[in-house]
Amino acid sequence: MKNSRISVRDIVVKCCLSCILLLQACDNSNDGVEFESEFYGNAEIIRIDPKNDIDEEYSMKASLIVSSIDYFPLTLPGDMVIGEVAKMIHHNGHVYIFDRHTASVFIFTDEGEFINAIQSKGEGPEEYGDINDFEVEPRSGNVLIYSPMSQKILKYTIKGEYLGAMRNKARLSSFFPISDSAMVMYNSRLPNEYVFESTFPIQPRFFIANDAEEIEKQDLETTYREQLLMYPVSGFGFYEVGDSLRLMESINTVIYKVDLAEGRVYPRFGFDFTNVNPPRLFDMEADELSTFMEDYKNKKVGGWATLYKVSETADFLCVTYFYDKYVNRTFYSKNTKRLINIGSAWINDMDNISMPSVETVTVDGEFIGYFNSNDFSRMVRNNNNKLSQRILDLEKSQRDAESIILVKFRLKDF
């Protein structure tokens, strides 16, 4: 399958405009709701004050907490382009990238060398109609693709060989393989009336399903309400830390620890955004939710912080959240319990260029982000500071590449 050469710059501009419109829709000066600590049980509470806690010194000097940083431009065949990085996973020395624009999963080595691209969109028995999410099997490195249109989760080797599929009628927001025949699944707010027809509109947000389409265990019972579909949910999903499986849920600003034996989830980290906490929509009664959504639609409420993404290593958390039209970053040390709120801007003073957003982590504790090559070239050309020689050389080599530059960095203890 060949892809037309579409400008990465055009795609990025469109994505940025979409994000701005979403954030503007949430723009309001109203305070958030009171933090309800009883919901989080024995979870570790991380308190972030988006209004007052920005550590400006750390924002301007990444070297205060970053011990090393390296750049790896991705090599792509001439007829391929990555249009929109929707998700990135690092596993066993490989980087997997889900490109939403081309409905493909690209695989590279740690150093950015191209290995393969799974591009099997179609209507055949070994093809997927679309991609909503993907995962990597922990033991094999095989790629799992969830296609709502095809109503199945398809499995491919790293070389793109089709291995089979698991039928799935459930509507999912995220999933994760726990064996050859079972998956943990999460559904944020979509109706699953065909799977839970005996209890619907009451349905679980978390459940374990096998390849016979049977529900083995479930948790996070909730009542489906159509009004929730109007609310922009920023982030959710499963991820691994060592031998532990986590589930991040943005609406409740929580990270759960998944207990596979019990088939339940328990709050591991809760996030208290002080006076700009978002509302707990899952706990609202139907009338209250209807009134809230009408006020939200008319911009009478809003302005709170929203959890977007969490990347976790054995020692640190990188917490990304929306607030006041900006994407902000906070780093938290699990060892010292210290928090550094970077804010929306973070400068790599070692190279005199911006730090990237964090997309994923390696098993040995590195954080991974990226720049697209067009944006990187503009940053360099418009930069009035003295840039490091490696940045100048990198920009020169990537000026017309229309590709992605991986950025890996490691944190110091703080």
UniProtKB/TrEMBL annotation:
<protein>
    <submittedName>
        <fullName>6-bladed beta-propeller</fullName>
    </submittedName>
</protein>
<dbReference type="Pfam" id="PF17170">
    <property type="entry name" value="DUF5128"/>
</dbReference>
<keyword id="KW-0732">Signal</keyword>
<dbReference type="InterPro" id="IPR011042">
    <property type="entry name" value="6-blade_b-propeller_TolB-like"/>
</dbReference>
<feature type="signal peptide">
    <location>
        <begin position="1"/>
        <end position="25"/>
    </location>
</feature>
